[in-house]
Amino acid sequence: MPTSLLVFLGLSLLFAAILWFRHRSKQQKRKRLLSTRLTPEQREVVARLVPIVRRMPEPLRLKLEGKMHLFLDQVTLRAKNGLELTEEMQLSIAAQACLPVVNSPVWYDTLRNVLIYPTTFFAQRDKHEGHVVQEHDMHMLGESWDRGPVVLSWESALQGGLDDKDGHNVVIHEFAHQRDSLTGHTNGIPVLRKGQDYVGWEKAMLHAYHDHVTRLENGQATLIDPYGATNHQEFFAEAIVTFFEKARSMRREEPALYAQLSELLALDPAEWD
Question: pTM score > 0.70 for this model?
Answer without folding.
Answer: yes
